[in-house]
């Protein structure tokens, strides 16, 4: 039914695609602002510890199940099952993951649409079309539908082209551009007056906050979202990976790249906010907290770019291009989750499946746009706060308890023959059975209590 399954052509292709999925708005917007509102470098520290202690093992669970089953998330989890109950449970978890991935994509599309609209604004300055510029940067249902729709089309075009010609090709092209733009912007912002103060706030830890439950809960949520965990994205990408590659090594590289880029993005955003303050802009809200939500990205930073004179126009282009690229390499990985299931389960051709599902997801985005106040925050909480951690626990349980240990070992051994004697194999199997589910659940309950 599925015919020949696509596959990443190389190790680099996989790393670019998986890191592209992981590195998104969560890194460039979420991480720096969470850091700023959670005691600066104390958050960075806790985040890195949790990323390696909790998120990396969960990422491994997804990659191993995916490459073992070589199929979409529903078939993979049900094929791992060793009884009717676990097979049905697996399919149920798979379908739930698909729904959550689709819902994440539906709000991500809206936010990405805002990024593209703001990317258009500096061009209206260059072309001397101020009215168009105002339209692009003023909230309206029409603007959101047009730009959200445009972004959804880009995502569908890439996914419709398949694994190697779509996901891999575009991630490999766009990720270096993303890193280049990020570094360029940092170099510029750090030379501006006020930047050093932001850098200090970002890098000096307030150690008294390290054990703050809110900080820990936020850091875990951020780590899971940032590594695209729980919804089957990494499982599906793992299923396109050749048996010759070492999973623990590639998983570690992806985690490192994701953490590295999140940290680097902080070197841009936090100093930029303090440069804005130096230029006379308000950066704290009435409660004395640093402005972190949409107004940071769509008001504070654009006003900062304005205050930079002619150079500001180009800085704005670079900044919103960076955001748009980060969004697209992540959104394609979300769309691949339902598309791979439909292609493999129904035999409907890839392009057709992509446009069908992409259209349905865009209808959800449109519903959110039209009922913005009631739905936007609700969908974000439902998916990232409540569903991703629970799905993460289920994936650890499937890897640790349901998939037979011999099969698990055979899978990690493939591409890494001496793994049995490594630290990874000594720790990970027990870890993913007990420590990960318990720690995730404890943190999750804390977040509900908070
Ligand atoms: N990791 C992406 C980000 O940081 C978001 C994402 C979540 C992507 C879930 C895929 C699946 O923005």
Structure description:
The protein is mainly alpha-helical. It has one domain (11-445): Hydantoin permease. Helices cover 80% and strands 0% of the residues. The chain has 18 helices and no strands. The protein has helices at residues 11-22, 25-37, 41-69, 73-80, 84-126, 130-137, 141-160, 163-190, 195-203, 213-226, 233-239, 247-278, 294-307, 310-346, 350-370, 372-402, 405-413, 423-449. The radius of gyration is 21 Å and the shape is globular. The mean pLDDT is 94. The protein binds phenylalanine.
Write the layout of secondary structure elements.
Blueprint: H1 11-22, H2 25-37, H3 41-69, H4 73-80, H5 84-126, H6 130-137, H7 141-160, H8 163-190, H9 195-203, H10 213-226, H11 233-239, H12 247-278, H13 294-307, H14 310-346, H15 350-370, H16 372-402, H17 405-413, H18 423-449
This protein binds phenylalanine.
């Amino acid at each position: 039914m599925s015919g020949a399954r696509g596959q990443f052509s190389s190790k680099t292709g996989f790393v670019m695609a998986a890191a592209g999925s992981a590195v998104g708005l969560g890194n460039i917007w979420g991480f720096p602002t969470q850091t700023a509102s959670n005691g600066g470098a104390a958050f960075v520290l806790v985040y890195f510890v949790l990323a390696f202690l909790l998120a990396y093992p969960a990422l491994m669970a997804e990659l191993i199940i995916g490459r073992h089953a070589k199929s979409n998330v529903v078939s993979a989890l049900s094929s791992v099952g060793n009884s009717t109950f676990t097979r049905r449970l697996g399919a149920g978890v798979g379908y739930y993951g698909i729904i959550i991935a689709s819902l994440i994509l539906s709000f991500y599309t809206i936010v990405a649409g805002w990024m593209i609209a703001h990317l258009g604004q500096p061009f209206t300055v260059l072309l001397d079309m101020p009215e168009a510029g105002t339209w692009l940067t003023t909230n309206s249902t029409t603007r959101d539908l047009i730009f959200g729709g445009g972004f959804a089309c880009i995502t569908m075009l890439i996914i419709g082209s398949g694994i190697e010609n779509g996901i891999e090709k575009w991630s490999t092209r766009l990720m270096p551009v993303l890193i280049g733009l990020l570094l360029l912007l940092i170099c510029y912002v750090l030379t501006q007056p006020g930047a050093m103060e932001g850098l200090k706030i970002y890098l000096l830890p307030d150690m008294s906050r390290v054990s703050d439950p809110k900080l820990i809960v936020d850091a875990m949520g951020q780590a899971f979202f940032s590594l695209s965990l729980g919804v089957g994205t990494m499982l599906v990408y793992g299923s396109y990976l050749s048996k010759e590659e070492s999973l623990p090594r590639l998983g570690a590289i992806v985690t490192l790249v994701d953490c590295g880029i999140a940290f680097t993005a902080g070197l841009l955003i936090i100093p930029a906010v303090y440069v804005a303050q130096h230029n006379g802009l308000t950066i704290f809200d009435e409660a004395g907290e640093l402005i972190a939500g949409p107004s940071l990205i769509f008001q504070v930073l654009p006003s900062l770019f304005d205050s930079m004179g002619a150079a500001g126009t180009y800085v704005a282009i670079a900044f919103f291009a960076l955001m748009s690229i980060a969004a697209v390499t992540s959104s394609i990985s979300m769309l691949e989750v339902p598309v791979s299931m439909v292609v493999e389960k129904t035999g409907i051709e890839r392009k057709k499946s992509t446009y069908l599902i992409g259209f349905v997801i865009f209808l959800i985005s449109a519903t959110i746009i039209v009922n913005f106040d009631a739905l936007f925050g609700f969908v974000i909480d439902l998916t990232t706060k409540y569903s991703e951690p629970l799905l993460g626990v289920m994936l650890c349980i499937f890897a640790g308890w349901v998939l037979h240990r011999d099969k698990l070992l055979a899978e990690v051994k493939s591409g890494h023959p001496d793994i049995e004697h490594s630290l990874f194999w000594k720790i990970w199997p027990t870890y993913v059975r007990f420590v990960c589910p318990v720690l995730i659940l404890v943190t999750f309950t804390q977040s509900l209590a908070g």
